[in-house]
Amino acid sequence: MAASADFLVLGGGIIGLCVARELRRRYPSERVTVVEKEPHVGEHASGRNSGVLHAGFYYSADSLKARFCRDGNRALREYIQSRGLALNPCGKLVVARTAADLPQLDELQRRGEKNGVPIERVSSTEARKIEPRAKTFERALWSPTTATADPAQVIAALRVDAEREGVQVLTGTPYLKRVNERIYTGAGEIEAGYVVNCAGLYADRVALDYGFSEAYRIVPFKGLYLYSDEPAGALRTNIYPVPNLRNPFLGVHFTVTVEGHAKIGPTAIPAFWREQYEGFGRFDTAEFAEIIWRDLGLFIAAGFDFRRLAIEELRKYSRARLVKLAGELVTGVELEHYRRWGRPGIRAQLIHLRTKKLEMDFVIEGDAKSLHVLNAVSPAWTCAFPFAAYVCDRINELTR
């Protein structure tokens, strides 16, 4: 006999767990189940991200990211503190490398102010008071609400809370296929009243089973960090460059971990299969062929300069290249201090098949039977709590 769930959430990352908790809060008499293909929750993007609680000043005011990031920073910070988890409220400096960066720096300030995010313009002298090693041209932006935490701690706490609240979390249970309302998993069949697809790197694949994601596909990008062997406290705050706002990547920067150590990165290297973490681990021939085909299409006809981006990112496999870029932001950056690569992460980046553009904001699709989170890229970790509420609002609208 098949198991049953009123709400079945596919994917045990931070989005899946937050959605499951929110559904349980709104529908206390309904059975909410999360299925996760890995032995533990949060083994992909949720457990491998930078751990930065972003403030919300990168995003235009009309975007979902702007609203969710501002509110999510506050909500996630409160959750972390309420559970007694580690938090480093170290803030962030966004520095200008040359005069050419200043207009974009000013645009970030305008966005932050419009989004209701605490943001302060500081002189180069004031920036060095915040972080003596910071290098900036004329001025910088100071974000006091940016912080860092330990993603693994947070995701573990969320699972404990979800199960305590009555959510069933089944790990080692991959989604296989759907036949009508019956879901086939690696641990048996589940009759599902409503399906919420939070499958991350495979969200588009799952969505296709339900007639969604026809205009979109996920293209993976690998993120790598280099860790400093300098003592904790060698840098006081996160230091970021002014980004190219046409791309979803923020450029090579310094992150101060929750323990106070510095790391530089991440890269945004095109990956050749969806879980290309180490060597040929999890290699999939069909995925390899599909993604090579999509990347070639982006090289030829992307709605942005994919060719230049890909070549520049591939160069960051070189420690020397990554350290050189980081040295544009901070004084005293020496190659010998950066020898250890961290665990790689894979960014599930949605592209529009017709326009060949990377989707810059959250994208969801759904109907009265299922809802699919197709694009939940950075800063999804920061946005998780209010984004989960938004997803549940959409479910309510679609099912009433």
How is the topology of this model organized?
Elements: E1 3-10, H1 14-26, E2 32-35, H2 45-48, E3 52-53, H3 64-82, E4 87-88, E5 92-95, H4 102-114, E6 120-123, H5 124-130, E7 139-143, E8 147-149, H6 151-164, E9 168-170, E10 175-179, E11 182-185, E12 188-197, H7 203-208, E13 216-223, E14 226-228, E15 238-241, E16 253-256, E17 262-265, E18 269-270, H8 285-301, H9 306-315, H10 319-326, E19 338-341, E20 345-352, E21 363-366, E22 370-375, H11 380-399
Parallel strand pairs: 1-2, 1-12, 2-9, 5-15, 12-22
Antiparallel strand pairs: 3-8, 4-8, 5-7, 6-7, 10-11, 11-12, 13-18, 13-20, 14-17, 14-19, 16-17, 21-22
Attribute tags:
4-stranded mixed sheet; 400 residues; 22 strands; 25% strand; 8-stranded mixed sheet; alpha+beta
Provide structural commentary.
The structure is a single chain. The model has no long low-confidence stretch (mean pLDDT 94). With 400 residues, this protein is α+β, with helices and mostly antiparallel strands. It contains eleven helices and 22 strands. Strands 1, 2, 9, 10, 11, 12, 21 and 22 form an eight-stranded mixed sheet that branches. The chain starts with a strand and ends with a helix.
Q: Give the total of beta strands.
A: 22
User: How many helix segments?
Assistant: 11
Q: β content, as a range?
A: 25-35%
Helix percent reads: 25-40%
Spans of 5+ residues with little confidence (pLDDT < 50)?
A: none
Mean of all residue-level pLDDT scores: 94
Largest sheet: 8 strands, mixed
Calculate the terminal CA-CA distance, rounded to whole Å.
Answer: 29 Å
Structural class: alpha+beta
Backbone CA Rg = 21 Å
Q: What overall geometry do the principal axes of the alpha carbons give?
A: globular
